[in-house]
Design a protein that fits this description.
Layout lengths: L10 H16 L4 H5 L8 H49 L16
Length: 108
């Protein structure tokens, strides 16, 4: 790494984003569970469970959308912001090297 440079590993964010996207896709609620739910309406607890299944089914798509698009988008924006800060910090560095061969301190 040369003078006036700062290293920041942002690849971790790319990995997190892909893991989130992959996990969100795997969390799909099967449609056939809801299509078979009317059989639950024959008893009181079953009707309550049917309503819960409807709510899960309605929120499933929203959850997958948010977790596979919005959350990864936020991480990518954070990564871009960190890269911008990294660039600004490296451009602001002032390096004064000394030719001290006695093992002294190098001024930055």
């Amino acid at each position: 790494m040369g003078n006036k440079s700062v290293f920041m590993d942002t690849n971790i964010f790319s990995g997190i984003v892909e893991d989130i996207r992959g996990s969100a896709i795997d969390c799909a609620f099967p449609c056939n569970a809801l299509s078979q739910a009317p059989h639950l309406d024959t008893f009181s607890a079953g009707r309550s469970m049917h309503e819960v299944l409807k709510t899960i089914h309605e929120t499933d798509e929203v959850y997958r959308s948010e977790s596979s698009e919005a959350l990864p988008g936020g991480f990518l924006k954070m990564k871009d912001s960190m890269l911008a800060v990294d660039k600004a910090a490296s451009e602001a560095l002032v390096v004064n090297e000394t030719n001290n061969t006695d093992g002294g301190v190098r001024e930055l």
